[in-house]
Design goal:
single chain, alpha+beta
């Protein structure tokens, strides 16, 4: 697959085809290889599990005692 760099304002833009299924807003670390071929590598940034307030909205907490009672098990 071939893509082409285009200029928008003061930035050069390299598009990512939809076929790659990259979610809009995904952040990448970018580096240019220094081995002479000028390869540019984009690595998706992974969320730091210790940053932010994500745990208040991403986790669904359940009461395991209710779940076990529904299955007919009792706690001893």
């Amino acid at each position: 697959m071939k893509v082409k760099v285009r200029t928008v304002g003061n930035a050069n833009i390299l598009t990512i085809p939809k076929a790659f299924n990259v979610t809009p807003g995904t952040e990448f670390e970018v580096e240019q290889q220094s081995d002479g071929d000028g390869m540019i590598v984009f690595k998706p940034r992974h969320r730091n599990p210790f940053e932010g307030n994500w745990f208040n909205t991403d986790l669904k907490q359940i009461d395991i005692t209710l779940e076990r009672a529904e299955l007919g098990h009792e706690w001893h």
